[in-house]
Amino acid sequence: MSAMTVDTVTFSDLSRRPKEVAERAAQLGRVRVTHRDAKDFYLTAADKEDLRDQSLTTASRIFLALMKHDATARTLLLAIPDVFPWVRHLHEEEIREFTVELVAALSDAAELDIDIPVQEVIAGWRATARIKSDPQTYREAGSPTTGDHGSVDVTP
Question: Which among 95, 117, 98, 97 has a CA at the least distance from the CA of 106?
């Protein structure tokens, strides 16, 4: 079986040697399967994935409980700059809004099994911080525009 890294196999490997790849996934917990013509995916041991889901749900519930019992979310607000250093470009109220949106998105990911909003919240607030980090860009972003400015390149 050809492996690009310790935990990666090709789709061809999976097709030719499914039992061997499945055993590897069971041993490691998951194996990344690369495919030339499609997105990569993971072959995951169900018990490991169930544990990951339970961990996310537990962490999400802890964050929600912290916010419920501390309306200012002070503890979380103190931790956010350690996790997301770019929030230093946001105002205090914006950091609080980001924290509330992030915890809500994490709750949705855990309880509703939808992960995309978490990354969307982070990307949106990171973009805001990026604009605010440069005073000139921030001033320009707040000024009125007219006409078509062409296509937009969206980068994560």
Answer: 117
